[in-house]
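Hi R.,

Quick one: here's the Bile acid:sodium symporter family protein sequence you asked about.
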Amino acid sequence: MLQRMNLFLEKAMPYVIPIIVFLGVTLWSGAQSWAPFVKWIFAFISFSSCLSLNLLQVKQAFSRPLPIIICLSILQFIIPLLAYVSGIVFFSENINMIAGLVLAFTIPTGVVTLMWVGLKGGNKGLTLAIVLVHTLLSPFLVPLTLQVLVGAQVSMDVFGLMSGLFWMIVFPSIIGIVVNRVTNGKSKKLGTTLAPFSKVAILVVILINSAVVSPYFQTIDGTLIFLFFLVWGIACVAYMIGLFLPFLFKWDKSTAISLMYNSGMRNTGVGASLAVTYFPPAAALPVVLSIVFQQFLAAIAGRFVTYYFDVERQEKKEDEMKKGRKLSS
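And here's the predicted structure, written out as tokens:
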């Protein structure tokens, strides 16, 4: 029954999340009173996600580190810089909005990425390695990136930011990995049992964070609509870079799919929690907007990549047939 529930939630997430965000900013805006519980809910999500990690696949991925390094460069340098430049161009007089854009594309990639990579035939080991490394380094990388790009203009609790990331994702992830290792992978059964509860917990976090920023959604004006499409556009660029950069290195299809999802998806729940805790509420807007479409955009990217590789395979097949006809003639 729990497995069926988990499967249902996996398929329903792209459609349920926008509804949850809508409820958070309208009917259930009172959920903002639950904000102090967010870090503990996220600790549970991080812990349960790491119980099912295949550590052998992670080890194999580290034997070829270049894709990991390239993906981390996209995640922590290329896209945050693009977000910063976009903020300067379109919101030059609103430093909190610029900080929010940078934060939205600086937060670590999430475990939910693994679900999409698995569904679309990506490299699970590589994805696990990227998620693990980025998660463990996030208490240092996220504040550093923010400090370099907007630190001089925004009042930021760097220690609080590092502490929040550590207790929300790093420490519980390490505990989950240790339990996984000590039990020789037997903890995967517990991880499978907790999986549907973990997804429900993600929805609860999204509801709370949406409620916190609900005052900013009371009036949907041109600025908010433009910001939505700007965040959407930056995310699309991240997907495209992640998909096509592997072709320059002549990497296989599974690696390209993994880098595409790891480059395009972020742990938006963590990002929103950090934004509402350590930044002015306006800075949380870009992160909350990315929550609205992230799963939906992941589904679109999945359809695109399936179509792209089907066309490529068909073209190769036609080329081989033409070569065969030439040889026979």
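The chain has a mean pLDDT of 82.

Cheers,
M.
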